[in-house]
C-alpha cells in the first residue's frame, strides 16, 4: 500500500511511515529556508534598528537645538513654545516611520501655533488677554498674512526633500522583512512533498540510511519545489536597486543631517522676519481679529525683546553615529544578496544534504 516509496525490492516502510516522512520534509524545508534567510533577515532588522536609532538621535539633537534657541533668544515665549516644538519633531518622527501625514502639514501647524506667541510676546508684548478665540483668530490669520515670509515654505521644501528618502527607505526595509517572512512559510504542494520524500527518505525503506541524493537530482527536485519562490528573483533585484537609489538620495545634497540640524536657523529667521514687519502685521491683525487688551502704563524694558541676529550660545555636537557609514555598509551587503532568490535551490542542495566527492548516490530509483 505504499504511495511514494514503491520499489521491487523488499521494504521496511509502511504507509504511516510515508505520512511521517511527508510531515518531516515539510518541517525540514521550512527550517532550511529559515536558516538561509536568517543572515539576510538579521542584517535588515539590524539596519532598521540602526537607522531608527540614528534618526531618533538626530531628531533629539535638532529638537534640543531648536528649544535652546527659544531659551536663549526668545525667553518671554520659551515656556509656551516648548509644546509646538515637541509636536513638530514628533510629527517628523511619525512621518519617517510611515504615518499618514506630510512634512508640509507638520511644519505649517508648527508655524500656526508659533504666530500667536510671537505676536503677543515679541511684536506686542503688552497684550494681557490672549483668549482662546483671539489665539484661534491669530492662528487662522497666519495662513493669510504670512508673517514668517518665505522661511516657512523654505523649511517645508528642505525637509520634504531630505525626509522623503528616509521615509521610503524605512518602508522598503519593512517590506523586505515581510517578503522574507512570507517565503519561509510558502506552502509545499503535494507533488513537491512527495518528491522530497522520494529524494530524502525512500532510500531508508531499503536500509540505505547513509546514502544521499545525487547533486543533479537534488537540484531538479528543489527547483521544482521552489519555482514560485525563485520567481521573486526579478522583483528582488529591482528591490535591491531601489534600496540603492534611496540610500544615494539620502546621501545627496539635501542631506537629512543638514536639514534637521538647520531647523533652528529657519525658525530664527522666520521670527526675525515677523519682528521686522511687526507694525504692518499689527495693523492687519487689528482689522481682522480686533484689538486685544493692553497692559496699562509703560512696558518694562525687560519685556521687550530687541530684534537682533541670534548666534548659538550653546555648543551642540552632532550625534556620533554617522548615517552615511551605516548606509554604505548596508547597501554593500544588500548588493551581495542580489541573487538570493535565483540561487535558493543551489544553496539548499549544498552541504550535508547531497553526496559529494563519492562514487555512489541516490537518483530517486536506485543507487548509482
Automatic annotation (TrEMBL):
Q: Does the keyword Kinase apply?
A: no
Protein name as annotated? GPC5 protein
What organism is the protein native to?
Promerops cafer
Q: Name one GO biological process term.
A: positive regulation of canonical Wnt signaling pathway
Record key words, sorted? Cell membrane, Glycoprotein, GPI-anchor, Heparan sulfate, Lipoprotein, Membrane, Proteoglycan, Signal
What single Pfam family name could you report for this chain, choosing any that match? Glypican
Protein topology in the membrane: Lipid-anchor; GPI-anchor
Q: Which InterPro entries match?
A: Glypican (IPR001863), Glypican_CS (IPR019803)
Q: Which family does it belong to?
A: Belongs to the glypican family.
Q: Where in the cell is it found?
A: Cell membrane
Q: Which GO terms describe its cellular component?
A: cell surface; extracellular region; plasma membrane; side of membrane
Amino acid at each position: 500500500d505504499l504511495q511514494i516509496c514503491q520499489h521491487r525490492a523488499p521494504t521496511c516502510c509502511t504507509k504511516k511511515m510515508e505520512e511521517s516522512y511527508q510531515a518531516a520534509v515539510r518541517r525540514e524545508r521550512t527550517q532550511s529556508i529559515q536558516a538561509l534567510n536568517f543572515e539576510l533577515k538579521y542584517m535588515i532588522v539590524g539596519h532598521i534598528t540602526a537607522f531608527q536609532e540614528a534618526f531618533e538621535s538626530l531628531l533629539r539633537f535638532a529638537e534640543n537645538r531648536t528649544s535652546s534657541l527659544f531659551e536663549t533668544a526668545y525667553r518671554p515665549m520659551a515656556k509656551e513654545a516648548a509644546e509646538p516644538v515637541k509636536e513638530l519633531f514628533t510629527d517628523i518622527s511619525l512621518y519617517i516611520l510611515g504615518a499618514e501625514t506630510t512634512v508640509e502639514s507638520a511644519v505649517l501647524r508648527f508655524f500656526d501655533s508659533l504666530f500667536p506667541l510671537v505676536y503677543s510676546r515679541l511684536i506686542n508684548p503688552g497684550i494681557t488677554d490672549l483668549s482662546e478665540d483671539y489665539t484661534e483668530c491669530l492662528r487662522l490669520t497666519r495662513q493669510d498674512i504670512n508673517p514668517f515670509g518665505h522661511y516657512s515654505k523654505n523649511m517645508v521644501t528642505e525637509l520634504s526633500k531630505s525626509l522623503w528618502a528616509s521615509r521610503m527607505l524605512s518602508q522598503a526595509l519593512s517590506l523586505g522583512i515581510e517578503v522574507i517572512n512570507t517565503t519561509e512559510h510558502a506552502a509545499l504542494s503535494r507533488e513537491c512533498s512527495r518528491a522530497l520524500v522520494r529524494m530524502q527518505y525512500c532510500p531508508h525503506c531499503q536500509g540505505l540510511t547513509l546514502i544521499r541524493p545525487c547533486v543533479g537530482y537534488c537540484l531538479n527536485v528543489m527547483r521544482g519545489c521552489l519555482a514560485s519562490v525563485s520567481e521573486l528573483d526579478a522583483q528582488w533585484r529591482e528591490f535591491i536597486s531601489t534600496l540603492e537609489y534611496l540610500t544615494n538620495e539620502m546621501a545627496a545634497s539635501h542631506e537629512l543631517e543638514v536639514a534637521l540640524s538647520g531647523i533652528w536657523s529657519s525658525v530664527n529667521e522666520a521670527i526675525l522676519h515677523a519682528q521686522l514687519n511687526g507694525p504692518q502685521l499689527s495693523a492687519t491683525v487689528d482689522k481682522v481679529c480686533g484689538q486685544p487688551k493692553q497692559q496699562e502704563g509703560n512696558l518694562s524694558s525687560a519685556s521687550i525683546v530687541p530684534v537682533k541676529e541670534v548666534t548659538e550660545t550653546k555648543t551642540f555636537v552632532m550625534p556620533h553615529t554617522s548615517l552615511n557609514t551605516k548606509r554604505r555598509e548596508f547597501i554593500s551587503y544588500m548588493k551581495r544578496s542580489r541573487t538570493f532568490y535565483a540561487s535558493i535551490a543551489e544553496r539548499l542542495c549544498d552541504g550535508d544534504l547531497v553526496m559529494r566527492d563519492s562514487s555512489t548516490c541516490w537518483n530517486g530509483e536506485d543507487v548509482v
